[in-house]
Amino acid sequence: MPDDLDDLSGIPRYLQVAWVVEAEIRAGQWTPGNAVPSRNQLAERFGLARETAARAHAWLARSGYLVAVPGVGSLAAGPHRVGKPLKLGLEGLHSARRGSVSLPNIRADAWAA
Hints:
Largest sheet: 2 strands, antiparallel
Helix content: 25-40%
Number of domains: 1
CATH superfamily: Winged helix-like DNA-binding domain superfamily/Winged helix DNA-binding domain
Number of helices: 4
CATH architecture: Orthogonal Bundle
Strand order of the largest sheet: 1-2
Order of helices and strands: HHHEEH
Shape: globular
């Protein structure tokens, strides 16, 4: 029996599936480097069209929860990719000025109304 999704929530089905898989990855059901369910497996598990499952996979990849490896499949991402907070304090700004991050050129007087 496929896992239930809430069709009345207004949240797209692909996103609901992605959140379920995200929670399972965070809970350690799939350890870093191990295969996560394929698009076809997700489609069968949740009773979805393959395109919907593919959108869930794409969201997970963009969000850093899985890595697609050609010829291998999709693997759970390591802790260095999942949930790593962005730190952009003074050190981050210093490295940004060295060219690792592109910051907009904003003048101080641009904020005056």
